[in-house]
Model the fold of this input.
Amino acid sequence: MNLEIDSDRLTQELDTLAGFPDAPAPAVTRVVYSEQDRRAREYVKGLCAEAGLDVREDAVGNIFARWVGAEPSLAAIGTGSHIDAIPHAGRYDGTVGVLGGLEAIRALQRSGAKPRRSIELLIFSAEEPTRFGIGCFGSRLLAGCLDPSTVHDKDGKTLDEWRTAAGFHGGLGSVALPPGAYAAFVELHIEQGPLLERAGFPLGIVTAIAAPASWRIAIEGKGGHAGAMLMRDRQDAFCAAAEIGLAVELAAKSTGSEDTVGTVGVCDVFPGAVNSVPMRVRLEVDVRDIDGARRDGVLARIRQACDDTTARRGVRVRIEAINADAPAECDATVVAALAAAAAAHGLPFQKMVSRAYHDSLFLAGIAPTAMLFIPCRDGVSHRPDEYASPQAIADGALVLAETLASLADR
Ligand code: GLV
Ligand code: MN
Ligand code: MN
Done:
């Protein structure tokens, strides 16, 4: 097959997509259901239509763009990722899997390939947890493993309210895919860590995805005047939160494994005035491990630390567990297809674990799934200086195209 990736076009499309940010450049922030999210969706759907794909959206805004195969009744091969971006992020996380997936399909079209199975590009609604505290709600709903009525933002506004205001209607129960909807799913993504670059490999083939968990922790103390309230009378919610934050770090380190990580990424202090003793604090905590049981042990230690802080400081601590997912194993057949495609193009690869989570974590529950990683500079991600070279992206799109073609002809 004569596959050629149009790297200039792909780079230009990634740049254009980065031009729909909720924040000033060079940072990209794009939160699901914002105006910029709507514009970015329109842009990507337009490109898909231009490529002759059949485009549809479901009731929460997951986008499906299908290149209909020679035998349309067969289960399709899926590929894709997300176009939302966390606050102060870069332009490659997720978008490489979306626009790189589209370019892989276009490269197959240009080569004259006529795949047996349909190949479908998926753009998942909100891989990032920014709006609702939970990552991957689009792919969780597709996989039928999330009750949509439980999803709300930090102010209690529900997913249903947000998505209808954004123009997405239809029953939330209709989002789950029927069994066997995809014969396989492959996601192209930047590694988001340093291992490929350090080892000098242009590609990583993911064999397992680590198990994420997240909590919202609400701490309620006693507010007051920062000058007049005596230290001995205080129940400072921020000081309690600081103890809990350090306990998260300690608990993650206590396993002694590099695969365990714990982060407090959000700390909202109320009322947030320099001369006011903090009355309430909201923390958002992220804990992950490739070993689900060990991750749960870390969560238990954090819960114990919350109880200790409550007892010592007289504050109230309420934990809302948002998610605690199992790790996912990638499918051996899809991994082998990726390896064969990389070899066919003379590109060496390393097999590896994904420490970041991805929509593939949930697609793996309903379809044979694997991921293809490309290196990113210095392993930097979730930062404006995130960067993947045009060559690295083109290598990824090429091997993805080859893989999709081989899976689609089975
Ligand atoms: C995804 O962005 C993650 O946090 O792993
Ligand atoms: Mn991300
Ligand atoms: Mn991502």
About this structure: The chain is about 35% helix and 25% strand.
